[in-house]
Amino acid sequence: MSGHTGRFAPSPTGPLHAGSLVAALASWLDARACGGRWLVRIEDVDGPRCVPGAAEHILRQLNACGLEPDAPPLYQSTRSGRYQQVLDDLLARGLAYPCACTRREIDAALAASGHVHAAHTARPYPGTCRAGLQGRPARAWRFHTEKYQAQLAASGDTGPGFALGAAGLLHWSDRRLGAQQQNVALEVGDFVLRRADGLWAYQLAVVVDDGDQGVTDVVRGADLADNTPRQLLLQHALGLPAPRYLHTPLVCTPDGAKLSKQHGAPPIDERQPLQALAQAAQALGLPPLPAPRSVAQALLWWQQAWAHLYNRAP
């Protein structure tokens, strides 16, 4: 078996639908095409949004589709102690700090500076609490992006996975999308590591889990692509290796919105796994099956096609 480790990390806010099956199939094919390991991680760190029984339903759907992990699933809800350990380390190094700002205050500060917030983009944090809380209680904890990027620029140490160019522009490469860039300090600012409601933020949890599980290749939906530079910075700050990234096409509704549980996406039919897989393979640009086959035969067919498409032969 190769050193490749991939993962599928669904949030148990409902069963798998056509869009999430695309990411599951792509990550499975990517691992299997080079003889690697494939893991499932249940991202249930946001407990209030999780639906009872959804994790078990997702695992049954994956099994019906022949997508079986090589180890028992990891549940983020069991990992709070590990996340706290990492946050404490960043605080001790001056790379994280408490923040007292509400969203309304952040929006007001951005508006006062002339910033126009575009829909579906991050609100760049204006750095209000970098100098201290001024006697106010902490609501959240943030990564000191500006400080860390300045350290990297001064040392010239950007490590594997990305390069920090002029004026803080971070460059990295996506296996499907190609060359990417973002100025994290300017476009995102000091991003949240632990939220005001006490829950762990996605950025911290996913970076720590990928590092601890030895994930070498992250294959996920294109809607998460702009999270990558934040995660690359955090990985580097924690001394974790940077995985390779591949962001898959999104399945959209007729009006162009991303297909999601919030948009009423129906769950995949476990009684028709071959049909569901065929639709996911089509969304990934894989060739159709030459004839009706079993799930196992279909997966082998698409595995070979994936290896050819992304040069991931064993």
From TrEMBL:
Amino acids binding ATP: 261
Gene3D superfamilies for this protein: HUPs
Chain sites annotated for binding L-glutamate: 7-11, 43, 202, 220
Keywords: Aminoacyl-tRNA synthetase, ATP-binding, Ligase, Metal-binding, Nucleotide-binding, Protein biosynthesis, Zinc
Residue ranges of domain Glutamyl/glutaminyl-tRNA synthetase class Ib catalytic in the record: 7-121, 187-265
Keyword ATP-binding: yes
Binding site for Zn(2+): 99, 101, 125, 129
Motif ('KMSKS' region): 258-262
Cofactor: Zn(2+)
EC numbers on record: 6.1.1.-
Cofactor binding comment, as recorded: Binds 1 zinc ion per subunit.
Short motif ('HIGH' region): ranges: 10-20
Function, as annotated: Catalyzes the tRNA-independent activation of glutamate in presence of ATP and the subsequent transfer of glutamate onto a tRNA(Asp). Glutamate is transferred on the 2-amino-5-(4,5-dihydroxy-2-cyclopenten-1-yl) moiety of the queuosine in the wobble position of the QUC anticodon.
Family under the similarity heading: Belongs to the class-I aminoacyl-tRNA synthetase family. GluQ subfamily.
Identification of the protein by name: Glutamyl-Q tRNA(Asp) synthetase
Organism per entry: Comamonas faecalis
